C-alpha cells in the first residue's frame, strides 16, 4: 500500500486546537499524517507494508496542471507495481472533484486509488483527517474495491461523480443524483451499487508541457459576452459555460459563444448547480456535459483537447 501526499486541509495547522477555519493548509508531511493514525500503526504492526511519498505540498485551491501530471504519473507507477494492492492520495477538498475526475478519466485503474481529505485541520481538537485516512487505507485494501474513489466521513463516492457541496460541514461531498457507492461502518464496507468503470486515456495524454487554455464562464442575469470576447482575443481554446436552468444561456452570451464555436473554440455547457443532469432536447445548440460540475467539465474539455494534439 502506498499513501501519496499533496497537502490540503488534512495536513493543515491552526494557531489553536479550537480553530477550524483560520488555519494554514499543507503544513504537515504525509509521513507525519500516517504516523499520527493509531489504526494504521496497528495494521503495520500486523504486517501491512505501508509506504508514503510526498508528491506535492499545496493548498488545493492552488492546484496546478504540473501537480496533476506529477500525481497521475506517480499513481500510475505505483498501481503498476505487483507488490502494491492500492494507492491512497491525501488531498485538499477545494479542487478534489477535479483531481478525482482527472485520475478517473486518465487512469481508470483496476486497483483502488482512494482519495481522502479533511474539513478540519490536523491541529483541530476534533480533526476528521485521521479517521478519513484510516478509512481510505482500509478501503484500498478491500478485495472488491477498484477504480478512483473518495472516502470521506464514512462514505465512499465515485471519483467520476463526487463534488464538494458545502464549505464547512464534515459531510461536505455528494454525487448528485448518483448517490454514494458504499458506507464504511466500524471498518466494514457496506456496498450500495457497482464500482465505476471507465476506459483509461493513459497518463501519456498529460505529456505536453503547455496545456490547452480552457476557462469557465457563467450565464447569469445581465450576461453580455464581453468576457468571452476578451478570452477569444487572448487565444482561449475551450470554454465551459455554467448554465442556468436546464442548460439555458443568456441570449447575449449565447450569441458570442456560438461565434466562438464557429471560430473553432470548443464549448461545453454544464449545470451551475450541484445536482441533476442536462436533459437533452431543450437548448442543444452547444454540446452538454451531462451531470458534470463546471469544474469537472473543464477537466473533461482539457482532456478532449489534449487528445486532439
Automatic annotation (TrEMBL):
Q: Where does substrate bind?
A: 60, 93-94
Q: Which residues form the active site?
A: 9, 93
Enzyme class, spelled out: hydrolase
What PANTHER family is this protein classified in?
60 KDA LYSOPHOSPHOLIPASE (PTHR11707:SF28), L-ASPARAGINASE (PTHR11707)
State the family named in the UniProt similarity comment for this chain: Belongs to the asparaginase 1 family.
- Tell me the keywords, alphabetical order: Hydrolase
**PROSITE patterns found in the cross-reference section:** ASN_GLN_ASE_2, ASN_GLN_ASE_3
Per the UniProt entry, the Enzyme Commission number(s) are 3.5.1.1
Protein name, UniProt field: Asparaginase
Asparaginase/glutaminase C-terminal domain segment(s): 214-304
Fetch the Pfam families from UniProt: Asparaginase, Asparaginase_C
All residue ranges annotated as the L-asparaginase N-terminal domain in the record: 2-193
According to the UniProt entry, its GO molecular function terms are: asparaginase activity
The Gene Ontology biological process terms listed for this entry are: asparagine metabolic process
Amino acid at each position: 500500500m502506498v499513501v501519496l501526499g499533496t497537502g490540503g486541509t488534512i495536513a493543515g495547522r491552526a494557531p489553536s486546537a479550537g480553530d477550524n477555519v483560520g488555519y494554514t493548509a499543507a503544513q504537515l508531511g504525509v509521513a507525519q499524517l500516517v504516523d499520527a493514525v493509531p489504526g494504521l500503526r496497528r495494521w503495520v504492526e500486523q504486517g501491512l507494508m505501508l509506504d508514503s511519498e510526498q508528491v506535492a505540498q499545496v493548498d488545493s485551491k492552488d492546484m496546478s496542471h504540473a501537480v496533476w501530471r506529477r500525481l497521475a504519473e506517480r499513481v500510475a507507477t505505483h498501481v503498476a507495481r505487483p507488490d502494491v494492492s492500492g494507492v491512497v492520495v491525501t488531498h485538499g477538498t477545494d479542487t478534489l472533484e477535479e483531481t478525482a475526475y482527472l485520475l478517473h478519466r486518465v487512469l481508470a485503474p483496476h486497483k483502488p486509488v482512494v482519495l481522502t481529505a479533511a474539513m478540519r485541520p490536523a491541529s483541530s481538537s476534533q480533526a476528521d483527517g485521521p479517521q478519513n485516512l484510516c478509512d481510505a487505507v482500509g478501503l484500498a485494501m478491500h478485495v472488491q474495491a477498484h477504480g478512483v474513489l473518495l472516502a470521506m466521513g464514512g462514505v465512499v463516492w465515485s471519483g467520476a461523480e463526487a463534488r464538494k457541496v458545502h464549505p464547512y460541514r464534515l459531510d461536505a461531498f455528494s454525487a448528485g443524483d448518483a448517490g454514494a457507492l458504499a458506507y464504511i461502518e466500524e471498518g466494514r464496507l457496506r456496498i450500495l451499487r457497482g464500482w465505476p468503470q471507465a476506459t483509461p486515456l493513459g497518463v501519456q495524454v498529460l505529456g505536453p508541457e503547455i496545456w490547452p487554455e480552457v476557462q469557465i464562464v457563467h450565464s447569469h442575469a445581465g450576461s453580455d459576452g464581453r468576457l468571452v470576447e476578451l478570452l477569444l482575443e487572448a487565444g482561449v481554446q475551450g470554454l465551459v459555460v455554467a448554465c442556468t436552468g436546464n442548460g439555458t444561456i443568456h441570449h447575449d452570451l449565447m450569441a458570442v459563444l456560438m461565434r466562438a464555436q464557429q471560430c473553432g473554440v470548443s464549448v461545453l455547457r454544464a449545470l451551475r448547480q450541484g445536482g441533476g443532469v442536462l436533459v437533452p432536447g431543450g437548448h442543444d445548440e452547444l454540446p452538454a456535459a451531462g451531470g458534470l460540475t463546471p469544474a469537472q467539465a473543464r477537466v473533461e474539455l482539457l482532456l478532449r483537447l489534449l487528445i486532439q494534439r
